[in-house]
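Service request form, structural biology core

Requester: graduate student, group of Dr. S.
Request type: structure prediction, single chain
Budget code: on file
Notes: please return the result as structure tokens.

Sequence provided:
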Amino acid sequence: MKIHLAGDINSPNSISSRCRALFKHNKDSHEFKITNIKHDPVCIMIQTELLDDVKTACESKLENPDVCINMKPPEFWTLHEGAKNIGWISWGKGSAIPKEWISKCSMMDKILVTSEEDYASAIRANIECDVIIINEPIDIDIFGKISGEADIANVTVRENGIRIEDRKPAVLIQGKQSDATSIIEVLEVLCSQYTQNDLTIILRTYKNTMNTADDPAIIQMISQVRQRSNSKDGPRIVLLSNPLADEELAQVYNACSTSINISRTSGINQTVIQSALCGTVPITHTHNTSSSDIGSYMQIYDHTMIPVFDGNSSSDSWWASPNQLSLKDSIDYAMNKDISDQSKIELRKAHNPEKILEEIIS
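Core staff response, request fulfilled:
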């Protein structure tokens, strides 16, 4: 089958985890064309041996595709006459879909969402096409348990004092749809309740989706949190602000005991599943999730929903904010929790990119 993947790539060596997983695990069974290249290199880099195949797909003159899968917001969607046009999106708002997107969605043959809340939003909007809930595709060849020392391109984990084996506990903080406040809420708990002998904090930021400016601004924010928390002997904080390849991210997961998802809009996303497959217990909330995704492999903290005006008058926005006492309890529990082999087997099966592509194009 001829498949056009539209979006989620900035250059041949800069591709998102979702697009990469679908392409890598299905390139021998289907013919691919990849487009929507941008100039800002903010997505995730790919492994060298896959680069030639991605370049070929980016340069492909593929005409009359059978399927076009759009992975960017609706204003960037591509439609092909005679093809099955599919839009994949997450609103993450828990309420209305922007009015200008509804007509775009109705022009598609199928809309893909990854949560029951987004599905309900699409149904309330009376979108005139099929809407289905789909699992996130994960590169199951990469995300798993590894051993040794993690030396990666953008940061050498060993030099930062974090070893995969024989290490003190480390907590990874990350979340794409997050902001400075969501970082502060978690850092305040970690800096006030733990010492440098208890754990190390790995703070992964996404400059392209967070209003956190540059590294000095983030460092200043960390300093302010320490002062407010009176954290003179608080945990060491390692800052990861550069894009990471999936291989590098898998090594970071394996260097940590647990990961905290601070996404405002999505409780269970790619990073939560990736973390669990590496045996790193994810701590998250349940906003904008599907009940089928919630399992014993994760630790859930209580949260409240706060209204946020995002500048779009046609769409309300509600963000998740953690209950700090519940978050502290979740961290304590997760640090001593193991993910069962059976849970990993079930996750690998549920997020297999080959199976997911079959569901998408069916």
